[in-house]
Amino acid sequence: MLTIKGLSVSIDGACILNALDLKVPEGQVHVIMGPNGSGKSTLSRVLMGDDRYQVDAGEIRYRGQDLCAMSPEVRAHQGLFLGFQYPVSIPGVNNMTFLKTALNAKLKALGQPECDAMSFMALAESAAKTIGMDLEFLKRDLNSDFSGGEKKRNEILQMLVLQPDLAILDEIDSGLDIDALQAVAAGINALRDSSRSLLLITHYPRLLELIRPNRVHVMLSGSIVKSGEYALAMELESKGYGWLEPLTEGV
Amino acid sequence: MQHVPTCVDQVLTVWPDWLQHMQQAATQSLKSNSCEAGLWAQDWAAYTVGSFHAAQHESTPALQAWMQSHIPEDAYCLVLINGVGCLPVSRLPMNLNHEGCIGTLQQCLKDPVQAAWIQAYFDQDNVSDVSERMQLENLSGLMDGMCVCLSESLDRPLHVVHWVDARARGQILCLRHCLKMASSATLDLTHWVVGESAVQCGLNVSFHGDLGVDAQCHMVRIQDMPDGMLLMASDDVTLAKQSAYDRFDLNLGRGQTYQRHQINLKGTGSRCDLRGVFDLDHQQQMIYPVRVDHQAAHTVSNQQFCALAKAEAIGAIESRVIVRPGAVQINSKQSMRGIVLDTGAQLKVRPELEIYADEVQCQHGASVGALDVEALRYLMARGISYQQARAMLIQALIQGVLPDHIDPSIEALLSQLYQLDQNIEVMSDA
């Protein structure tokens, strides 16, 4: 699904990602963990085509295609989804209208018939039910006056409606209470199937207990320095990241 | 006292030709002693030169087509073509119980009953000799205008259409509109200033309004003039006790404009709600000075403006709120938003406050900048194209300043604005 080889990325001359390699096969859930400033969010933004970052070296292949050659909206049409760490509030843009516009933009790009109002409502209702979200949120402006947890739920709602092939969720669990965390996990698990992949960025293993990822990667200084099974996340929880520092030498 | 340059001054420095042009016209009018009518003429007034033939204000198929698509069939309508009232295409109430008048100034003054009504209204303000003044101005080139004197509520919306076409080329058209509303009268007024393309002419328009006790006026002015037209508009509205003036300006055209507003909240508890959406493009320039004068206690003013500037357009919105001594417990809000969409465009917005009373609440806010890049990125990350994302954000900003109720024909105009020259689908209700 996603293959990253030797990816180096900088912003304003500062190197953030350094010869990063990563593979996320189809149908798998991978997790990236790492200390603050290690480049996790940068990776997610680069994958989504944020034009502030410069790709200095390496390549990103998504379903065999050069991802860097695609504009952000084309990436979304092709099945990429980024759940933002800090979703922006856009007063004046209705949540439901926005989501329907996004869905129809994708369908149109794929040459499929657009979703009418009735079908969309059914889809949105089903997605909202999965994560226990009140439909009233759809009537409000996009993320406007939403709490942190409500914003994160809204990201998951969008993901469920847009049905991406590869969802990248950047700290989707930060700031969530126990109920919200379970709702978000339910949303993520609802999307899982053999044809979709997920890349989660998180600091905490709490979410992973509910999701059980296939692989856990540790990112330090802009590179993946260690990968392992779910047990690696537990090890990080007890030992922190210090013991992995020697692995960054020469990176 | 040292003169502090205002943003209006700054715009004028890059706009010398138009000002010079209008000053020359004003000088001409002063030489002909036609600026004595203090109520009607401002010190910058420009007057038309030469005579205007009747054929230049006859209706045309283009106007008829425009009216069919913009003016609701059940609305009253007063049409002025190239500055002169055109009654054959107007639809006016036939009977106002001899207690008011609606029509063109020239028409109303010819009717003894209506003239008496106008006279009676203005006598209240110690402004006499209206007929004489009109005759004087008419001789010196004043053309016409709207005259609405209401003793009671009008049962339907009134649309005043000021249509300018190629026959006015090279002219400066001078119009004087007056509105007088008696106690408790209500009026829903839409004023269109529209023109055909490629007309080089100037408009000098003043609007004088007096709202009686408890009167309510909801006014929309849509300016959709083509490039090459110049508009100097001066509005002066005075509100009596508990009266309300809601005003929405929508500037869509490409004409150069100076629109001055003076709102006098004279009566206790009177209130005004001023909103505006301005779309500036190409080398268009707009100056929009507003002055809201809280003269009485418990008065309320609310201002919300949103301007978009593209290409090399320049715009300035300058609003001053004055709170006079004794005007206690007033509430005033000013909100101005400028969105610069191209690097060559410039916008200046400035709220000002002059407060000479205690116990007042005044809020003001102003910002000028580009569209929120983070919001654009967010929308694009969901598969929405740059053009459509931009249109959605602009629509969101504009909707924030719109009045609660908008006529469908204005909705259609706004929809064109959101598309911003792009053939894209705008947001509709899901």
List the helices and strands and how they pair.
The complex is a heterodimer of chains A (251) and B (430).
Chain A: E1 2-11, E2 14-24, E3 29-33, H1 40-48, E4 54-62, E5 65-66, H2 72-77, E6 80-83, E7 90-94, H3 95-109, H4 117-130, H5 136-139, E8 141-142, H6 148-162, E9 166-170, H7 178-191, E10 197-201, H8 206-211, E11 215-220, E12 223-228, H9 230-239
Parallel strand pairs in A: 3-10, 3-11, 6-9, 9-10
Antiparallel strand pairs in A: 1-2, 1-4, 4-5, 7-8, 11-12
Helix pairs in contact in A: 4-6, 6-7
Chain B: H1 7-13, H2 16-31, H3 61-70, E1 76-81, E2 84-85, E3 101-104, H4 105-110, H5 112-123, H6 130-140, E4 146-150, E5 158-164, E6 172-181, E7 186-195, E8 201-211, E9 216-224, E10 229-239, E11 244-251, E12 256-265, E13 271-280, E14 285-294, E15 300-309, E16 314-323, E17 331-340, E18 346-355, E19 361-369, H7 373-380, H8 386-399, H9 408-419
Can you put this structure into words, describing what you see?
The complex is a heterodimer of chains A (251) and B (430). Chain A is of the alpha/beta class and 251 residues long. Chain A has nine helices and twelve strands. Chain A has helices at 40-48, 72-77, 95-109, 117-130, 136-139, 148-162, 178-191, 206-211, 230-239; strands spanning 2-11, 14-24, 29-33, 54-62, 65-66, 80-83, 90-94, 141-142, 166-170, 197-201, 215-220, 223-228. In chain A, the strands form three sheets. Chain A has a six-stranded mixed β-sheet with strand order 6-9-10-3-11-12, sandwiched between helices. In chain A, a hairpin with a 2-residue loop joins strand 1 (2-11) and strand 2. The radius of gyration of chain A is 18 Å and the shape is globular. Chain B has 430 residues and is α/β, with parallel strands linked by helices. In chain B, 22% of the residues lie in helices and 38% in strands. In chain B, helix 7 crosses helix 8 and helix 8 (386-399) packs antiparallel against helix 9. Chain A binds chain B through residues 48-50, 71-73, 75-77, 82, 84, 87-88, 90-94, 96-102, 105-106, 109, 117, 120-121, 141, 158, 162, and chain B through 372, 374-375, 377-386, 388, 392-393, 395-397, 399-400, 427-430.
